[in-house]
């Protein structure tokens, strides 16, 4: 069984390649500078019943200095009924070189589109893909009265559930999930920390436990490898890498948002 890759470009005739279950592909001329006025699309198609895990290990695009995507990469699922939200990203920050940019498809197809303007060429990207089994979908819940995550199989008629204990936690408050690494990220408003635990419960890390008061909301941008959390009493939102390093504060005094309790992210990084 193979993946199929279809490539169309300004200088490449449409063609189809049968690929192994895992592999790599790059932007034109990588690791040298990509061409100007590039308009290139890669189409990944796995076997029926499989999904695609896509990871960008290296990305360098024209620097975004004015809030516009001069050169951009867009990831989408061409299947009309797919629940996958298209994501467009540019070169927009110092965190990019340190973390892979990761996607997991909802169906057996993904398209990757790269478009560039006529100024400033950069290195482009190197990506790898693999055909994997779909992940079982669970509903996960957390409450301040129980120091565990409750996982409920949404497709089970008997409502199968499992408790995942949270070491050192007394009042867990907010919860999110990274589907690529299979880690839950959560906050504790009593112990005042941000932590993560893998879905099996055998790996647990406290990521942030200083300069934190009431971390009441958390979100993970698994595409760029960042996490954000809202601190109600400190009246701020913080951002760091997924391991808690390179933390930055986003002050909110002029935004009209006081005592933030939750944070959400858009997949569009323009």
Automatic annotation (TrEMBL):
This is Putative CUB and zona pellucida-like domain-containing protein 1. Residues 8-132 form the CUB domain. PANTHER family: OVOCHYMASE-RELATED. InterPro entries: 6-blade_b-propeller_TolB-like (IPR011042), CUB_dom (IPR000859), LDLR_classB_rpt (IPR000033), Sperma_CUB_dom_sf (IPR035914). Keywords: Disulfide bond, Repeat. LDL-receptor class B repeats lie at residues 182-224, 225-269. Pfam families: CUB. The keyword Repeat applies.
């Amino acid at each position: 069984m193979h993946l199929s890759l279809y490539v169309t470009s300004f200088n490449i005739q449409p063609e189809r390649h049968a690929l192994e279950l895992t592999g790599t592909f790059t932007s034109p001329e990588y690791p040298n500078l990509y061409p100007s006025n590039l308009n290139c699309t890669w189409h990944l198609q796995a076997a029926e019943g499989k999904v695609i895990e896509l990871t960008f290990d290296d990305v360098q695009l024209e620097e975004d200095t004015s809030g516009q995507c001069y050169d951009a990469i867009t990831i989408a699922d061409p299947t009309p009924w797919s629940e996958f939200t298209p994501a467009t990203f540019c070169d927009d920050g110092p965190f990019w070189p340190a973390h892979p940019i990761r996607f997991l498809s909802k169906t057996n197809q993904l398209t990757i589109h790269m478009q560039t303007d006529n100024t400033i060429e950069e290195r482009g990207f190197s990506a790898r893909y693999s055909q994997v089994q779909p992940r079982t979908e669970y509903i996960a819940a957390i409450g301040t009265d129980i120091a565990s995550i409750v996982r409920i199989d949404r497709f089970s008629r008997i409502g199968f559930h499992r408790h995942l204990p949270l070491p050192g936690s007394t009042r867990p408050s907010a919860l999110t999930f990274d589907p690529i690494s299979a880690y839950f990220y959560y906050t504790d408003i009593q112990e005042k920390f941000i932590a993560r635990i893998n879905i099996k419960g055998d790996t647990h890390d406290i990521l942030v436990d200083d300069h934190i008061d009431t971390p009441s909301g958390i979100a993970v941008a698994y595409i760029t490898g960042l996490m954000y959390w809202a601190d109600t009493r400190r009246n701020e939102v913080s951002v760091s890498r997924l391991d808690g390093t390179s933390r930055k504060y986003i002050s909110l005094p002029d935004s009209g948002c006081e005592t933030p309790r939750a944070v959400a992210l858009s997949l569009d990084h323009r």
